[in-house]
């Protein structure tokens, strides 16, 4: 190759690299939102992941795959609970399009059907577990709730989720209506679940998802006193940056029969300043 051709080739490669770096910085690079930024963070909540007929709370593995593919296609970046807390509490840095996927109830089907999809497409998620429903082999799995084959995970599967890069949060101890429980019962539910996860998983959970999304001012106060730093509802839409109550964070409910692409495309655009 002649020197001139080599020079042109090198220059072209350099320009492509610079263009790629610029695109990455614009699309993905983490930055601190300015005072006039309008940033929202979608935290998706799903429940059952099963093949077959979809319902309000059962999504098929194929539709879950479409959801994560659509998030990747549109340039969303997964954030952890720690990164979310830093952004909401301390105005910490965020990617241009932050997002989070969460699962409530810790059913076995999540481990069987959701984990392979998440790992294949590079999306860590948060699994909120009602620890009173968890058992140890060789004991039989706890069967509870509604829908087909409602078997709960066991502790080894929750540990495997954590080792696969997922986060484990609390869904209270026995999945009761915390808003109607006595204060001492609420305290026991939240403290027991947090302690069990810390002992069995090795990391104390920083987040709580209220069973059924039911909460009250007293429940939120109890969550803070128990050591949780974030509390999640079961719906309400994306989290706006600047939300005042970190113990009443909304999430984006994903019905099993809905088109994941339509849900993602309906999210508000972030405006950075």
Question: What does this entry look like structurally?
Answer:
The chain has 273 residues and is α/β, with parallel strands linked by helices. Helices cover 39% and strands 16% of the residues. The chain is built from eight helices and twelve strands. The strands form three sheets. Strands 2, 5, 6, 7, 8, 9, 10 and 12 form an eight-stranded parallel beta sheet that branches. Strands 1-11 form a two-stranded antiparallel sheet. A two-stranded parallel sheet has the order 3-4. It is globular, with a radius of gyration of 21 Å. The protein starts with a helix and ends in an 8-residue tail after the last helix.
Outline of the structure:
This protein is α/β, with parallel strands linked by helices.
């Amino acid at each position: 190759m002649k020197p001139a051709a080599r020079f042109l080739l090198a220059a072209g490669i350099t320009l492509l690299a610079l263009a790629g770096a610029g695109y990455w910085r614009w699309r993905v690079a983490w930055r601190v939102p300015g005072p006039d930024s309008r940033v929202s963070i979608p935290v998706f909540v799903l429940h059952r992941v099963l093949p077959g007929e979809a319902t309000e709370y059962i999504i098929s593995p194929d539709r879950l795959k479409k959801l994560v593919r659509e998030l990747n296609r549109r340039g969303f970046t997964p954030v952890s609970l720690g990164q979310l807390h830093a952004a909401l509490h301390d105005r910490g840095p965020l990617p241009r399009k932050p997002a989070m996927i969460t699962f409530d109830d810790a059913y076995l089907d999540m481990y069987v059907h959701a984990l392979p999809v998440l790992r294949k497409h590079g999306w860590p998620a948060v699994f909120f577990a009602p620890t009173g429903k968890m058992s140890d082999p060789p004991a039989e799995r706890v069967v509870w709730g509604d829908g087909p084959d409602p078997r709960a995970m066991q502790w080894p599967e929750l540990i495997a989720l954590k080792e696969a890069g997922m986060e484990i949060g609390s869904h209270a101890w026995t999945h009761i209506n915390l808003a109607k429980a006595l204060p001492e019962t609420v305290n026991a539910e939240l403290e027991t679940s947090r302690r069990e996860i810390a002992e069995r998983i090795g990391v104390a959970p920083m987040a709580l998802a209220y069973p059924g999304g039911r909460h009250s001012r007293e429940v939120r106060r109890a969550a803070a006193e128990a050591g949780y730093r974030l509390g999640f509802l079961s719906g309400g839409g994306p989290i706006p940056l600047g939300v005042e109550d970190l113990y009443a964070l909304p999430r984006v409910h994903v019905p099993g029969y809905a088109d994941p692409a339509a849900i993602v495309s309906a999210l508000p655009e972030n405006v950075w300043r």
